[in-house]
Amino acid sequence: MAEFSNARVRVIDLETGGNGPNDVCEIGWQDVVTDEDGRWQITDERGALFVNPGRPISPDTMAVHHILDANVADAPYWKQVAAGILRPAGRIDALAAHRASFEQRYCTPRFTGGTPWICTWKCALLAWPELPRFSNQMLRYQRMPEGLDHETGLPAHRAMPDAYVTAHHLRDLLNERSLETLLAWSSEPGLLPRVPSGPDRGKGWDRLSDTTLQEFIHDRDVDIRFSAQTELTRRGDREQPQVGEPAQRTFL
After folding, report:
1. What segment(s) does the record annotate as region Disordered (predicted)?
2. Where are the domains of the chain?
3. How far apart are CA 92 and CA 101, in angstroms?
4. Where would I find the H helices in the chain?
5. What integer pLDDT is reported at residue 242 of this predicted model?
6. Among 46, 49, 69, 110, which residue has the fewest nearby CB atoms (within 10 Å)?
């Protein structure tokens, strides 16, 4: 761990006003750093900032985070604040988020400078496969991370509280696994421990027949394809289609 002395990972959470590329209406952050013994800890470096998405917030998203147009009317735009939060002064070894692909849609290399990402959802699937569910809030109450202040982590679905909760999962993951391991896990699709839906829901992939697994590698969901392919590979079948190619592409 010596090479990561004084290391820092910044956890990011975004709330958005719609699905456009600039629709961020709030960003929250929470830092996780190594102490003098090389153990990862939560710091007091956290915060949140309203962002003006440049257009009205949709009712669908307001119903989730309860951020109103009036809250963001005088806020800066995303392009004005993103880089300063995503590339803070001092050392930054990685950015992190729960289901980081969402944050990465908005936190592009233009703003991050190419800083690598950790996805705590993907990492939790591999580190704690025995857990029944893997959402940020379910992990919070299934795991009850040490030191997580209940009130600081509320309300849910707001940027700073969600980043604060995610940071506790990240701290524990980093104290169990190396930073390099989490970055490697995050670079691949999610390896689901069980079938998520359908007649085989809840079954481990090792319980499925080769025929059923062959069907799953044609699923539209990349995580399902990757999980089925991984089990087939484990069984010695290494000549399957790449998981990045949806088999239904001819219908799209």
Report:
1. 232-252
2. 2-186, 205-251
3. 19
4. 59-65, 69-72, 78-86, 100-106, 109-112, 120-127, 136-143, 159-176, 179-186, 210-216, 222-234
5. 53
6. 110
